[in-house]
Automatic annotation (TrEMBL):
<dbReference type="Pfam" id="PF01022">
    <property type="entry name" value="HTH_5"/>
</dbReference>
<keyword id="KW-0805">Transcription regulation</keyword>
<dbReference type="InterPro" id="IPR051081">
    <property type="entry name" value="HTH_MetalResp_TranReg"/>
</dbReference>
<dbReference type="InterPro" id="IPR036388">
    <property type="entry name" value="WH-like_DNA-bd_sf"/>
</dbReference>
<protein>
    <submittedName>
        <fullName>Transcriptional regulator</fullName>
    </submittedName>
</protein>
<keyword id="KW-0804">Transcription</keyword>
<keyword id="KW-0238">DNA-binding</keyword>
<feature type="domain" description="HTH arsR-type">
    <location>
        <begin position="16"/>
        <end position="111"/>
    </location>
</feature>
<dbReference type="InterPro" id="IPR011991">
    <property type="entry name" value="ArsR-like_HTH"/>
</dbReference>
<dbReference type="InterPro" id="IPR001845">
    <property type="entry name" value="HTH_ArsR_DNA-bd_dom"/>
</dbReference>
<dbReference type="InterPro" id="IPR036390">
    <property type="entry name" value="WH_DNA-bd_sf"/>
</dbReference>
Amino acid sequence: MAKQTAGASHRAAPVHTDPEDVSVLTALSALADPVRIRLIRELADSAVWTRSCGSFDVPVGKAALSHHFSVLRGAGLVEQRDEGPKRVNRLRREEFDARFPGLLDLVLRADDVE
């Protein structure tokens, strides 16, 4: 039987979708929600791997926030990893821009999204 180490996480590792496997409809659908756009914008303004899921100021509960991150992972926009008790995030800007050139630029500069 494997021995549990102190502080080890019981969460399953998040599943990530390669942006190359994402359709334009999936990408647009992920970017159509104001909460997800807010998450993307905050990640774009943050250093990589510095934002934990709980550090975002969004008007949703934990379950809804988890769902929004799942949608963003499924669209190839966000990568997550566990660091101790926190799950930290990275915007997959380069990879997503290679698949959908200019799309994130439009979303990040649009003023009428929220």
